[in-house]
Protein: Pyridoxamine 5'-phosphate oxidase family protein
Amino acid sequence: MNEAPARDLPSSERTRVRRVAQRAHYDRATLEAIVDAAHVCHVAFADEQGVHCIPTACWRDGDHLYIHGSNGSRMLKLAAAGAQVCVSITHLDGLVLARSAFNHSMNYRSAMIYGCFEVVPEARQGAVLDVFLEQLAPGRSREARPGNAKELAATTVLRIGFDEVATKVRQGGPKDDEDDLGLPVWAGVLPLGVARGAPIVEAAPDGAPAYVRDWERVVLA
Amino acid sequence: MNEAPARDLPSSERTRVRRVAQRAHYDRATLEAIVDAAHVCHVAFADEQGVHCIPTACWRDGDHLYIHGSNGSRMLKLAAAGAQVCVSITHLDGLVLARSAFNHSMNYRSAMIYGCFEVVPEARQGAVLDVFLEQLAPGRSREARPGNAKELAATTVLRIGFDEVATKVRQGGPKDDEDDLGLPVWAGVLPLGVARGAPIVEAAPDGAPAYVRDWERVVLA
Structure:
């Protein structure tokens, strides 16, 4: 099989990957896998003080990436007002140790989303925030006390579509120069992933739900 | 003991944390711990196409954060030419599950560095890149084939000082409203950290060095 990779994401001059272009992917499945594995993104935007790069929680629902926060947040106010942004999500999957210093690399999966956020209307906020909570802890949106009118009114929820997106992935072992292959140097990959540690209990009046009992594990790409 | 926190980092109007300001730290030790735990940062900058947010490998040596890459990189070319940047480093340490949906949170450590990169002269590049390799794998700069003149000439190394920096840290358990403390809802923290997976060997002509043998482990904050 030598299928051409899917190219089902809209691209643009801005999202065409130039450096090491064979690592670029323009398909929706790659994008969704990268986004869905993330709890946090970095949002870059500019104001009169210059360029900023702010980490914030994120989640996907269908065709949009969502972020949220206090109405008082500078980033959310600017983004709600239509500021151009670049949202970046990165997973570091390993250190790639080559026989030559120059050919050392890292394995990663990254996504960049360009465009503008739009405001999620207050009437839709509760449902959209429930989706977020369910992704973090399935069932919890029916356990925790729901947001009341005052809490929802203090919260801004924004979403951005996948209209101008690029993803880039490096995986696999080192790419050494032919001349270096015989050198007596250890070569390979030191994998990196996510560790979920033992839950820290503050209160468990009805015992621990499944998402707590099953939390602890190692997640490698 | 109720010592005032150290404030030994220069701050500015741009780096004064406004949202949840009690999470802000302006001391050098906090900054160094956040930077030294990271292999990757996000660099935000702007050009005629808008704002960009690019992940790249990073390391600290003394008073500077370093990045590097191919001379052909757009980001490195712009940064070398003096573009204003915001560099962001974020570690996600856990999901904080409160009794109310609204008070859910995340534990994290983050740093933002504003300013401009400067170019590391070619004569210093080899030494600076050795520091990077030593931090990833102690001893490896004496094992791997060093960069030759052609490889170093194709590489740009940049550094930025800690002149305009902010860090923000959230740790600990949920902060529930008094009225919610009696609700029958599990409350606590689901910790997140870094998992180092079993090394993937491509070649081990002389066996595995210590940084490979000792690699596999879980690192929690």
Summary: Helices of chain A lie at 28-36, 74-80, 122-136, 149-153, 210-213. The first helix of chain A runs from residue 28 to 36. Residues 21-175+182-195 of chain A form a domain with the Pnp Oxidase; Chain A fold (CATH 2.30.110.10).
